[in-house]
Design goal:
mainly beta, SH3 type barrels, 94 residues, two-stranded antiparallel ribbon
């Protein structure tokens, strides 16, 4: 079984580049490479019906993030640290 390589990973900051949530920005909560989907924090919120249980006697609705296709997100580039430039030493001619 081979791994599917993706351009984003959990914890990356991404921006949505197409679809209904175009322009939205958030962090990646989960990557599903086999389905080519990602969960982005605060993007595509869906309501899920919850049955009443012992812990939650009222039941009701819960809002959670829905998956979007991985091709619709682009990683936001983190600010690059300034690297020290190497100064080439010139050989002195004698």
């Amino acid at each position: 079984m081979s791994r599917i390589k993706t351009h984003v990973k959990k914890g990356d900051t991404v921006v949505v580049i197409s679809g209904a949530a175009k322009g939205a920005q958030g962090t990646v909560l989960e990557v599903q490479p086999s389905k080519s989907r990602v969960l982005v924090e605060g993007v595509r919120m869906i309501k899920k019906a919850i049955k009443p249980t012992q812990q939650n006697q009222a039941g009701g609705f819960q809002e959670k993030e829905g998956p979007i296709h991985i091709s619709n997100v682009k990683r936001v580039e983190a600010p690059v640290k300034d690297k020290k430039k190497k100064v080439a030493k010139k050989k002195a001619k004698a």
